[in-house]
Design goal:
230 residues; alpha/beta; TIM Barrel; seven-stranded parallel beta sheet; 39% helix
Length: 230
Protein backbone atom coordinates (compact mmCIF):
# COMPACT_ATOMS: atom_id res chain seq x y z
CA UNK A 1 0.00 0.00 0.00
CA UNK A 2 1.38 3.37 -0.99
CA UNK A 3 -0.95 5.50 1.11
CA UNK A 4 -0.25 6.48 4.71
CA UNK A 5 -3.42 4.72 5.83
CA UNK A 6 -2.80 1.44 7.62
CA UNK A 7 -5.39 -1.33 7.29
CA UNK A 8 -5.33 -4.37 9.54
CA UNK A 9 -6.42 -7.97 8.97
CA UNK A 10 -6.84 -10.95 11.27
CA UNK A 11 -4.48 -13.68 10.12
CA UNK A 12 -3.99 -17.37 10.89
CA UNK A 13 -1.09 -19.83 11.00
CA UNK A 14 2.01 -19.96 13.23
CA UNK A 15 2.86 -16.72 15.01
CA UNK A 16 5.63 -15.68 12.61
CA UNK A 17 3.48 -16.80 9.65
CA UNK A 18 1.21 -13.86 10.41
CA UNK A 19 3.74 -11.49 8.85
CA UNK A 20 3.82 -13.40 5.57
CA UNK A 21 0.04 -13.85 5.46
CA UNK A 22 -0.43 -10.12 5.95
CA UNK A 23 2.16 -9.15 3.34
CA UNK A 24 0.71 -11.61 0.81
CA UNK A 25 -2.55 -9.64 0.77
CA UNK A 26 -0.85 -6.24 0.76
CA UNK A 27 -1.19 -5.58 4.49
CA UNK A 28 1.19 -3.62 6.68
CA UNK A 29 -0.76 -4.42 9.85
CA UNK A 30 -2.46 -7.43 11.40
CA UNK A 31 -4.15 -8.76 14.53
CA UNK A 32 -3.99 -12.20 16.13
CA UNK A 33 -4.47 -14.15 19.36
CA UNK A 34 -1.42 -15.15 21.42
CA UNK A 35 -3.19 -18.29 22.69
CA UNK A 36 -6.45 -20.20 22.37
CA UNK A 37 -9.06 -17.45 22.64
CA UNK A 38 -11.73 -19.82 23.97
CA UNK A 39 -9.71 -21.48 26.73
CA UNK A 40 -8.69 -20.20 30.15
CA UNK A 41 -5.27 -21.82 30.07
CA UNK A 42 -2.59 -22.53 27.48
CA UNK A 43 0.96 -23.93 27.61
CA UNK A 44 3.65 -21.28 28.16
CA UNK A 45 5.14 -19.66 25.08
CA UNK A 46 8.66 -20.89 24.45
CA UNK A 47 11.45 -18.38 24.01
CA UNK A 48 12.25 -20.09 20.71
CA UNK A 49 8.79 -19.17 19.36
CA UNK A 50 9.09 -15.62 20.66
CA UNK A 51 12.55 -15.18 19.15
CA UNK A 52 11.37 -16.44 15.74
CA UNK A 53 8.56 -13.89 15.84
CA UNK A 54 10.86 -11.00 16.79
CA UNK A 55 13.47 -11.99 14.20
CA UNK A 56 10.84 -12.24 11.45
CA UNK A 57 9.54 -8.78 12.31
CA UNK A 58 13.09 -7.44 12.19
CA UNK A 59 13.92 -9.19 8.90
CA UNK A 60 10.76 -7.91 7.22
CA UNK A 61 11.09 -4.44 8.82
CA UNK A 62 7.59 -4.79 10.21
CA UNK A 63 6.89 -2.16 12.92
CA UNK A 64 5.60 -3.60 16.18
CA UNK A 65 3.18 -0.70 16.56
CA UNK A 66 1.29 -2.01 13.51
CA UNK A 67 0.40 -5.27 15.28
CA UNK A 68 -2.47 -5.78 17.73
CA UNK A 69 -3.10 -8.82 19.90
CA UNK A 70 -6.77 -9.50 20.65
CA UNK A 71 -7.68 -10.68 24.13
CA UNK A 72 -9.58 -13.88 24.83
CA UNK A 73 -13.33 -13.86 24.21
CA UNK A 74 -13.86 -15.40 27.66
CA UNK A 75 -12.72 -12.32 29.57
CA UNK A 76 -15.12 -10.19 31.59
CA UNK A 77 -13.00 -7.37 32.96
CA UNK A 78 -15.97 -5.85 34.80
CA UNK A 79 -17.52 -8.89 36.45
CA UNK A 80 -18.93 -8.57 39.97
CA UNK A 81 -18.27 -12.30 40.49
CA UNK A 82 -14.83 -12.46 42.10
CA UNK A 83 -14.06 -15.93 40.71
CA UNK A 84 -14.84 -14.85 37.14
CA UNK A 85 -13.00 -11.55 37.65
CA UNK A 86 -9.98 -13.34 39.08
CA UNK A 87 -9.82 -15.65 36.06
CA UNK A 88 -10.12 -12.70 33.70
CA UNK A 89 -7.31 -10.80 35.40
CA UNK A 90 -5.02 -13.83 35.52
CA UNK A 91 -5.65 -14.53 31.83
CA UNK A 92 -5.09 -10.90 30.87
CA UNK A 93 -1.77 -10.82 32.69
CA UNK A 94 -0.72 -14.04 30.95
CA UNK A 95 -1.68 -12.67 27.53
CA UNK A 96 -0.03 -9.31 28.14
CA UNK A 97 3.19 -10.98 29.25
CA UNK A 98 3.13 -13.06 26.07
CA UNK A 99 2.76 -9.80 24.11
CA UNK A 100 5.78 -8.35 25.88
CA UNK A 101 7.72 -11.57 25.26
CA UNK A 102 7.03 -11.06 21.54
CA UNK A 103 7.82 -7.35 21.66
CA UNK A 104 4.24 -6.28 20.88
CA UNK A 105 2.94 -2.93 22.09
CA UNK A 106 -0.87 -3.14 21.78
CA UNK A 107 -3.29 -5.55 23.46
CA UNK A 108 -6.99 -5.15 22.61
CA UNK A 109 -9.78 -6.29 24.93
CA UNK A 110 -13.57 -6.19 25.16
CA UNK A 111 -14.38 -4.22 28.32
CA UNK A 112 -16.96 -6.61 29.78
CA UNK A 113 -20.50 -6.98 31.03
CA UNK A 114 -22.62 -6.41 34.11
CA UNK A 115 -24.13 -9.88 33.52
CA UNK A 116 -27.20 -8.35 35.13
CA UNK A 117 -25.55 -8.55 38.56
CA UNK A 118 -24.28 -5.00 39.08
CA UNK A 119 -24.90 -1.48 37.82
CA UNK A 120 -23.19 -0.19 34.69
CA UNK A 121 -21.30 2.34 36.82
CA UNK A 122 -20.01 -0.44 39.09
CA UNK A 123 -18.97 -2.47 36.05
CA UNK A 124 -17.08 0.46 34.50
CA UNK A 125 -15.25 1.03 37.78
CA UNK A 126 -14.26 -2.64 37.93
CA UNK A 127 -13.01 -2.53 34.33
CA UNK A 128 -10.77 0.42 35.19
CA UNK A 129 -9.50 -1.38 38.31
CA UNK A 130 -8.78 -4.47 36.20
CA UNK A 131 -6.72 -2.45 33.72
CA UNK A 132 -4.77 -0.92 36.62
CA UNK A 133 -4.26 -4.38 38.13
CA UNK A 134 -2.87 -5.78 34.87
CA UNK A 135 -0.67 -2.75 34.16
CA UNK A 136 0.88 -2.98 37.63
CA UNK A 137 1.91 -6.57 36.87
CA UNK A 138 3.27 -6.03 33.37
CA UNK A 139 6.04 -3.85 32.00
CA UNK A 140 4.91 -1.65 29.15
CA UNK A 141 1.97 -3.09 27.19
CA UNK A 142 -0.72 -0.58 26.15
CA UNK A 143 -4.24 -1.95 26.69
CA UNK A 144 -6.81 -0.95 24.08
CA UNK A 145 -10.49 -0.84 25.06
CA UNK A 146 -12.60 -1.96 22.11
CA UNK A 147 -15.78 -0.06 21.27
CA UNK A 148 -18.77 -2.36 21.63
CA UNK A 149 -22.19 -2.75 19.99
CA UNK A 150 -24.21 -1.99 23.13
CA UNK A 151 -25.70 -5.47 23.18
CA UNK A 152 -27.48 -6.56 26.35
CA UNK A 153 -25.47 -6.00 29.51
CA UNK A 154 -22.14 -5.28 27.79
CA UNK A 155 -20.47 -1.95 28.51
CA UNK A 156 -18.46 0.16 26.08
CA UNK A 157 -21.22 0.68 23.53
CA UNK A 158 -21.25 4.40 24.25
CA UNK A 159 -18.24 6.65 23.87
CA UNK A 160 -19.12 8.13 27.27
CA UNK A 161 -18.63 4.74 28.96
CA UNK A 162 -15.17 4.30 27.48
CA UNK A 163 -14.33 7.86 28.54
CA UNK A 164 -15.42 6.98 32.09
CA UNK A 165 -13.14 3.94 32.15
CA UNK A 166 -10.15 5.94 30.91
CA UNK A 167 -10.87 8.70 33.40
CA UNK A 168 -10.64 6.18 36.27
CA UNK A 169 -7.48 4.42 35.02
CA UNK A 170 -4.37 5.57 36.87
CA UNK A 171 -1.76 5.15 34.11
CA UNK A 172 -3.39 6.84 31.13
CA UNK A 173 -0.21 6.52 29.08
CA UNK A 174 -0.84 2.78 28.85
CA UNK A 175 -4.50 2.86 27.83
CA UNK A 176 -6.06 3.47 24.41
CA UNK A 177 -9.05 2.63 22.24
CA UNK A 178 -9.64 0.27 19.33
CA UNK A 179 -12.57 1.54 17.27
CA UNK A 180 -14.58 -1.32 15.79
CA UNK A 181 -16.64 -0.03 12.84
CA UNK A 182 -19.27 -2.78 13.03
CA UNK A 183 -19.71 -2.26 16.74
CA UNK A 184 -20.07 1.52 16.65
CA UNK A 185 -22.51 1.27 13.71
CA UNK A 186 -24.61 -1.22 15.69
CA UNK A 187 -24.38 1.05 18.73
CA UNK A 188 -25.87 4.00 16.82
CA UNK A 189 -22.85 5.90 15.52
CA UNK A 190 -23.41 6.37 11.79
CA UNK A 191 -20.47 6.06 9.37
CA UNK A 192 -22.31 5.43 6.08
CA UNK A 193 -21.12 8.60 4.37
CA UNK A 194 -18.07 10.81 4.61
CA UNK A 195 -20.13 13.54 6.27
CA UNK A 196 -21.61 11.40 9.06
CA UNK A 197 -18.30 9.58 9.50
CA UNK A 198 -16.64 12.91 10.30
CA UNK A 199 -19.49 13.73 12.69
CA UNK A 200 -18.94 10.43 14.51
CA UNK A 201 -15.18 10.91 14.71
CA UNK A 202 -15.77 14.44 16.04
CA UNK A 203 -18.04 12.94 18.73
CA UNK A 204 -15.27 10.48 19.58
CA UNK A 205 -12.74 13.29 19.83
CA UNK A 206 -15.01 15.49 21.95
CA UNK A 207 -15.91 12.61 24.29
CA UNK A 208 -12.79 10.45 24.54
CA UNK A 209 -10.07 12.30 22.63
CA UNK A 210 -8.32 11.24 19.44
CA UNK A 211 -5.06 10.95 21.38
CA UNK A 212 -6.43 7.65 22.73
CA UNK A 213 -7.35 6.19 19.33
CA UNK A 214 -4.68 3.58 18.58
CA UNK A 215 -6.37 1.13 16.20
CA UNK A 216 -9.35 0.53 13.94
CA UNK A 217 -11.04 -2.83 13.57
CA UNK A 218 -12.72 -2.36 10.19
CA UNK A 219 -15.74 -4.64 9.82
CA UNK A 220 -18.88 -4.48 7.75
CA UNK A 221 -22.19 -5.11 9.54
CA UNK A 222 -24.77 -7.78 8.77
CA UNK A 223 -27.19 -6.02 11.12
CA UNK A 224 -29.02 -2.77 10.52
CA UNK A 225 -28.00 0.59 11.94
CA UNK A 226 -28.49 0.82 15.74
CA UNK A 227 -29.32 -2.90 15.98
CA UNK A 228 -27.04 -3.52 19.01
CA UNK A 229 -25.81 -6.74 17.40
CA UNK A 230 -22.29 -7.52 16.21
Amino acid sequence: LESDEVFQWHVSGGLEQGFYNALSIGCRSFAFFVRNQRSWTSPPMSEEVAERFRETAKKLKFPMDQIVVHGSYLLNCGSSDMEILGRARTSMIDECKRCEQLGIIYYNVHPGSTAGKCTREECLKTVAETLDYVMERTQYITILIETMAGQGNTVGGKFEEIQQIIEMVKNKKRVGVCLDTCHIFAAGYDIRSEEVYHETITKFDNTIGLQYLRAFHINDSLGKFYCHSS
